[in-house]
Amino acid sequence: MEKMQIAIAGISEMRWRGNGTTTTSSGNLVMHSGTNDGGRSGVGIYVSKQYKPALISWSPVSDRIIIARFRCNARHITIVQCYAPTEDASDDIKDDFYNALTSSLTRIERGDIKILMGDFNVKIGPNKQRIGNNHGPTWCWHSNNGDTLIDLCQTFQLVIGGTVFPHNEIHKYTWTSPNGHTRNQIDHICISRKWRRSMMDVRNRRSASIDSDHELIIGELLIKLQRNSNTVNWTTRRPPPINVQRLSDSNLSTRMATTLREQMTQPLNHSWEQTCSILRSTAEEMLGTRQRRRTEWISAHTWELISKRNSRKSKADHDCRARDEHKELCKMVKKSARNDKRKNF
After folding, report:
1. What is the reported pLDDT for 232?
2. Is residue 267 part of a domain?
3. Residue 34 and residue 115 share a domain
4. Whether 276 and 309 share a structural domain
5. Mind listing the pLDDT tens digit for each residue in 241-295?
6. E strands present in 168-269
7. Per-residue pLDDT tens for 88-121?
8. How many structural domains are present in the chain?
9. Are residues 64 and 87 in the same domain?
């Protein structure tokens, strides 16, 4: 994400257990929503560290839907990331998903910019462009789920970004079959019709090696998030921990106790906040803080395999031999990374 300079990204088929947030070693935030047993579904939203202050709230709806609201200079933005059932799924599963998605879109604050994105597993043919312009892929046959998505977009006044911008066919597909011959556009980014002009482009990025049969699809928006906010929210960074291990030095612990005793005795009417502030400032001055160490658990051998895999990615689209080598390198990277993690944790 940092290499592609992505501010916010939606992730489908995340397969993480439960709901929660994770802060990476680089300071980026990942929110995820899934089931307790993991499973094959699960969704998530990645937010770069520069735009974490713009996050207002987020809500895990199910293992297929997650919502996040961001502070914007113009209006607030509400992003709905989803992972829809496939065409072969039962009607009950598809009805439950689209009912939950409709309910989630209905609860969005009035006036917010709606962005609906994710793996919809739907194909929208060139003759079915009732929303957006007629720039959809010409090789995709329209699917039944496509009608459902189009009706949903018409209800909530959304435009499908992949049908708006003219691109070469190779820049439109988002999924490739395991045999490498069938390609479809089943991942979409939709935006409120009123803010259609704020969307500058939508296309895939085949250069991103994400080890998936899906391509990374990127939408460029001419909307600035409000990164600097005077309000304090739960994303505020915690202060660094105190280096309490230095208290094992008897001389230092005695001097610190004497200093705290002198500061606490004058005056005697300290509030709880003032007491905490005195304790914190004295401890930082005399004990110092303990910096969290970033553990580099990926070995040099794994990074070498990753470089080889990325170099084969550009050739895999045109060369069958390079495609087979790329698949084999993907398996080797997973195996090597798994072994590295087991050695260090």
Report:
1. 42
2. yes
3. yes
4. no
5. 888 888 888 888 888 888 888 877 766 566 777 788 888 888 888 888 876 666 6
6. 175-176, 183-184, 187-192, 199-205, 216-221
7. 889 899 999 999 999 999 999 988 999 999 999 9
8. 3
9. yes
